[in-house]
Amino acid sequence: MSETGFVPSRADALTAAPAAERPRGRAVSGVIALAWLGFATMGLNTVRLGGLAVSDLLFAACGAVIVARFITGQTHDLAGPHMRRTSPLVLVGSLLLLTFGTLSAFGAWDAGSSIQVVARLAWLTFAWFWILRTVSRDRLAFSRVVLGWRVGVLISAAVGVLTDVGITNIGTQNAEGRQTGFFAQPNEFAAMLAFALPLFLFDVPGRGENLDERRSWPVRIGMIVLIAWGIAASGSMTATFSAGLGCATAFVVVSLTRARDRRTPRSTNPLRPFLVMAALVVGLFVLSTSDLPVMERFTRYQEGDVYVSSSVETRGELNARAIQRLPDTMFVGTGLRQITAPGSVIGAVNTWDPDAVQGIHNMYLKVAHEAGVPALVGLLIIIGATFRQAWRLAISTAGTALHGIAAALVGAIVGATCQAMFHPIVFQRYFWAAIALTTCLWAVRRDEVMRAAGREPDGAGTPAGRRGRG
To answer: Helix, strand or coil for residue 157?
Structure first.
């Protein structure tokens, strides 16, 4: 059974985790706590220790603890070897991205800075992905990691909303009064919230042993309103569109993949769809009549405001220049560079390379221009492979407690890839979060399916595998 090609023939037989794979106790291990904290602090991007984000330091500490556990043989609360393994397609894509990113750095005017960006990508696609898969030994451990992501998003949204109403004064000052949270730029703040919104719409992961217990409706609605308000307060038109597209995609996925058992009539409350639609209509009306920055920017753009129109047109011009340079960057680019650092403005970075196109806002064109077309192919392979995994998870988990989170991850990936067309976020953790967690859920579900079918996962019979399963 390959890592990229399973769909169980009868998903309804796998509604709950197999008895042998039920969560072993409610205690939270140290590695899970560190991973949870890493996600919970992911929005504190401008809070630095020694030049490094707090979130990165926590994930690095988590990785160090994992390595120490392997050295001492205490791997009872870690995933087995078969779950830690990287998907072949993700591995190939990562190698292409990093190899051509490195080759491009050698010819860059600022080689040191370019190598730092490559190292950042290597940390995310290799080390970070592996750490999260190692921590996610079962569905309960996985859910705790995802809960950390939810908490981090809620903290960021709360900071933006409280600043918007004048209770706090946190964020980077800008002429339009757009909220940035603990980010240097409003679009980054909004993007982190937008990608995670499908998780809150479906209230996933749930609570309880099998993640099938839902929170009360007032709590769920309050969280959704908080995040939507945070996105609107950022004034980011692209994040607003990405959030809507991601949520719509998640709803479509649920509709297309949900379990249908004609033998058991499904009892539905006829008022629920009506209430949902009414809430959406009321929410859109309140948003359209508000004076939040995002509505102001939409209005100004429609009226031909010079500042907003210039921002949109400049992005198109930079993208056109990057496309014109594609023949020159067919194999080797001008060198990866990070253009969104704390305290900086997009497109304001200085370079001594007269041929480099600065401030490219399209992530895909940026990678092709700065790392070469093969690096872009590698990036697309990673995105495509994990999107395929998320889609197949949505199919295979229909009728189970994992169906909602699988659909939410599909929506999050779509939202992130949409936002990337207008914002160069390839080196940001929040862009890779849904992709990384999809690989974790794939490993968890694959382990459950194989054990439910009475098959011993690869490597589980070895001494290391037995230790990894406790």
So the answer is: helix
> Quick one: which of 454, 448, 428 has its CA closest to 123?
428
Cα gap 320→408, rounded to integer Å: 33
The closest of 125, 133, 150, 256 to 202, measured between CA atoms, is 150
Contacts 24+ apart (CB under 8 A), 385-391: 385/4, 385/87, 385/89, 385/90, 385/93, 386/87, 386/90, 386/413, 386/435, 386/438, 386/439, 387/413, 387/414, 388/4, 389/4, 389/87, 389/438, 389/439, 389/442, 390/434, 390/438, 390/441, 391/253
Q: Tokens at residue 282, please?
A: 């009321």
Indicate the helix (H) or strand (E) that contains 48.
Answer: strand 48-49
Closest residue by Cα to residue 222 from 270, 166, 279: 279
Q: Is residue 317 pLDDT above 60, yes or no?
A: yes
**Out of 91-100, 214-223, 343-352, least confident range:** 343-352
CA distance 104 to 114: 8
Q: Which long-range contacts (CB under 8 A, 24 or more apart) does 309-314 make?
A: 314/347, 314/359
Q: At 33, list the tokens.
A: 């706590």
Residue 212: what are its φ and ψ, rounded to 5°? -105, 5
pLDDT tens per residue, range 331-359: 899 899 875 433 333 333 344 455 577 77
Q: List the one residue out of 352, 355, 351 whose CA is nearest residue 324.
A: 355
Single-letter amino acid code for the residue at 417: T
**Percent of the chain scored above 70 by pLDDT?**
75
DSSP string, 176-202: T----TTSSSHHHHHHHHHHHHHHHHT
Q: For 254, left (φ over 0), alpha (ψ -120 to 50), or beta?
A: alpha
**What's the predicted TM-score (pTM) here?**
0.85
Residues 182 and 160 sit within 8 Å (Cβ to Cβ) = no
R_g over Cα of the chain: 22
What string of DSSP letters covers 220-278? HHHHHHHHHHHHHHHT-HHHHHHHHHHHHHHHHHHHHH----TTSPPP--THHHHHHHH
Share of residues in the chain with pLDDT > 90 (%): 56
